Amino acid sequence: MKKERKLYLWDWSAVADPGARLENLIASHLLKVCHFQEDTEGHRMELRFLRDTDAREVDFVVMKNKKPLFAVEVKTGERSMSPSVRYFKQRTSIPRW
């Protein structure tokens, strides 16, 4: 795995594509959760994503003190679990999906 960056906009309403807009909205709120935990509890929080070399990806992984708390996959209109989520759920120690 290699480290890559993703870009999200603070003003998620400026994003035209509905899927990307929803992902930006979720990113904004998860980041607020991380900041709240840092400010009130003193934990070191991180918001990351997970992608492997075969391009399987999970949109967000919330980390607390360098350990994963939970993962979030954002989709509009999907009712079934993403194959990427299923893959990483079986192979990682992330406790909540």
What does this structure look like?
The chain has 97 residues and is an alpha+beta fold. The protein has one domain. Helix content is 34%, strand content 22%. The mean pLDDT is 90.
Produce the secondary structure layout.
Blueprint: H1 18-41, E1 45-51, E2 57-64, E3 67-72, H2 83-91
Antiparallel strand pairs: 1-2, 2-3
Keywords:
3-stranded antiparallel β-sheet, 2 helices, alpha+beta, single chain, 22% strand, 97 residues
Report low-confidence residues grouped into runs of 5 or more: none
What can be said about the biggest beta sheet?
3 strands, antiparallel
SS content category: alpha+beta
User: What helical percentage do the residues reach?
Assistant: 25-40%
Radius of gyration: 14 Å
Write a concise synopsis of the structure shown.
By secondary structure, the chain is of the alpha+beta class.
